[in-house]
Amino acid sequence: MTATVPAPNVAPPLDFTALLSDRARKMTASAIREILKITQEPDVISFAGGLPAPELFPLDDVRAAMDAVMTRYGAAALQYSTTEGHLPLRQFLAERAGITPGHVQIMTGSQQGLDLLGKILISEGDIVLVESPTYLGALQSFQPYGPQYLEMPTDEEGIDVDALEELLKGLKAGGKRAKLLYAIPNFQNPTGRTLSKERRERLVNLTAEHGLLVIEDDPYGQLRFSGEAAPSLYQIALDRVGGNPDHSHIIYSGSFSKTLVPGLRDAWVQAAKPLIEKLVQAKQGADLHTPTLNQMIVTELLPTVLPRQIELIRKAYGERAQDMIRHIKAQFPAGVHHTVPQGGMFLWVTLPEGVDTLPMLARAVERKVAFVPGASFFALGGGHNTMRLSYSNATPQQIERGVKALAETISETVK
């Protein structure tokens, strides 16, 4: 007679959602990342993701730099390294900014820099000022730390500093103060607008008076293809305090992703030493350090390849921006407005009130063209009648066909 084996006492599956931390519950998926999944079909023309043009990548130079690094450093190029970053790379960045290497922290992409800055600066309920609209990746980075967002109005010259001044006065009158201001002064993502020189100076002075920290996110600053360059907020503030970076309230975030190659994920933050020291501690908990080999490769490319790449990219993106604007002017229906960027990778389209570009995206993809609906870039909601277009990773033929398909989609919606 065979003995009966009792059924195992199987516990029900865990409710993983219920076990998430409060911080994890505040995380949201990146709209851009999700949209990029839609546009992987080879016949879809994507004006969505802000992708650098891969045909401009310096493949041979990167290969030669890797060989040179391995020859010079050997096993050290593959070893763990210091959290602060490869010293020759930090020295290059420091000399260019007129500061010391101790004021520079290397990051694994500028997105990590934003996340770690949020971690060390934002407490639950802190007031954080952002442009309207602003980079959705920054909102995604800051959101888990519980900020209270307030939006700063913008126009064709960037942040409306008059409105910012009134906002800060109102907070002070109510016994409140903002903790942090986040801005992209050069060729802003998503609008492509640039903060004017006069407004930069006023913004630096105004925020200093109110004891307000400023994160200046500048991934596109060297990609100017028209107009005159303006000094960074960081440089204006440094001059204001006699060249002492420990007295500056501006935190500068830069990246090599848009000027060399994005896949190496090399970026940096410049800030006062007390902030750098905390970033070092935060980064130790995040990834210990940015990959040693990648930092060494980038450093090898700095003297000759980086300047050449910047000129190549400026020319290519300038031509692509002109192409896109020309076709938009010729084909988009009346009542649709767009920005005219002087550099960077994006322009911003505003449709008539009442139009929602989110459902429009599906119809555009049916015509084999994609964009990013603008509502994702507004911290407090709104912007449903806007969209971001990227021209950086599209050929002239794709721009022509894509704008035509987009114009048809808009026309059937705006009837």
UniProtKB/TrEMBL annotation:
Residues 62-406 form the Aminotransferase class I/classII large domain. GO terms for biological process: alpha-amino acid metabolic process. Keywords: Aminotransferase, Pyridoxal phosphate, Transferase. Its cofactor is pyridoxal 5'-phosphate. The keyword Signal does not apply. One of its GO terms (molecular function) is pyridoxal phosphate binding. Belongs to the class-I pyridoxal-phosphate-dependent aminotransferase family. Homodimer. PANTHER family: AMINOTRANSFERASE (PTHR42790), KYNURENINE_ALPHA-AMINOADIPATE AMINOTRANSFERASE, MITOCHONDRIAL (PTHR42790:SF19). This is 2-aminoadipate aminotransferase.
